[in-house]
Amino acid sequence: MNGFEPHATYAPIIRTSDHEEESFGDALYDWMGRAPFLAIAMAVHLLAFFLLAAIPWQAGRSDEPAVFTAEIVPPPADPFEEPVEPPPQIEKPIIDQTEVVIVDVPITDTDDDSDDDTEIDSPQSPFTNDKWNEAIGLGGGAACGGGSRGEAGGTPPGTNTRNERAVMSGLEWLKDHQAPDGRWDCDGFMHDTAREGPVCDGAGDAAHDVGVTGLALLAFMGIGDTLRSGTYMEQIRTGVAYLLDEQDLESGRIGAGVGHAFLYDHAIATLALCEALHGDPNHPLLTRRAQKAVNYISAARNPYGAWRYAVPPNGQQDTSVTGWMVFALAAARDVGLEVADSDFMGALAWIDEVTDPANGRTGYETMGGLSARPEHLSDAYPAEVSEAMTAVAMLSRLFIDKSLGRRDADVDLLEKGASLLLETLPEWSADGSTCDMYAWYYGSYAMFQYAELDPRAWTAWQKAMERAIVPNQRTEPVTFDGSWDPIGPWGESGGRVYSTATMVLSLEVFYRYGKLLGSR
After folding, report:
1. How many separate domains does the chain show?
2. Cβ distance 248 to 173 under 8 Å?
């Protein structure tokens, strides 16, 4: 045997014939006989195939697309918003509102309209609760709203850096004498400052906190600052919050309604709220509260006439109160609040009644009469040196004409009134007898508007106004720095806050209001 011959360990297939072909069955039998383990493997695979085929693979499937769910995570809290502490049970619930925060001034109302908590998440919120909270988002404008000092904070046209320094110094004094609750305390402002030095004098009447707070707010908003932005944003926020906290929600009156002159305070406060709306005229909460204040003004007007001190009206009227009401109503209409034409027409009827058509002089209670004075100060501050009521009438006519869409209706009386004002230009005399800050304030705004008709008349008034106001601003001691002494017939009532705010407002005339006369 050859050493290379294979050695068989299994029986070979025996052919019966040399010519007989091997069948598939024979080959298979021979293959399986030679490798029996393959049969076992095939049997196992067949069994596995049948088992797998028996499993209902389609039972867990669905023809519908897969739906993925995710939890919506709310955005992070507004970094400016502070948590609102729950109010005492005797108070109504506080509305939570985002956007801007009034700091550390808890405000409550006695609103009987709703006892439910209401959140106002945006100025477009549909909720109608009238609660005012620490979180508010509000807003100057043009014809009847906060002004602007020019591009990028530059000096406005018509002003100079000396005037601008006086304005800013006055605003700093007001800022440093605001009470913690947001008000300017008419008789206690000297205790609300961190300035060290002699205690300020010049206390006013405690009943006029609402009024002087409104004046201070108008001064801050006059440079373009708002509830949303500006150097004095916080002062405006807390001041507006104070006024709203003082509002009676049933009547709409702002303030206690005591004393014979509380309607002055209400009118000034309403004007301040309306000017605050210019930055956010669609804000539902402030809009409703300002509208209530406007409605109170309308309810206080004499039928077919104007206003004085009584609510409900008793038939008495005067030009001074009526002027403030006209300005508040004009500002209200300018921001889209509801104001009846009859309110403007009644005011105009009164102004016509007390204006002498021969010389254009407007009286306080009678045709061509003199301006009012506190009886005990009539000698110290003679009414003959002031045309305060004529200035009020001029500016009222301009606002009424704008509100009613009238043109050129009162040009003749405006010209005559301007001539009278040029005869009584602002002058700060040594004894103070010629000082009438009330007249200077109204005269400045009336003559600035009249400049569209006679620029030279405004130039003459402007120079006199600046000579009277700017050099007489206090610069020392530090507790007085930036203020004006409350000299004049109304200094005892309004005090140093009143005098400082009105002088700042007078110097802001260049940019606080837009022109009303247009293309006349």
Report:
1. 1
2. no
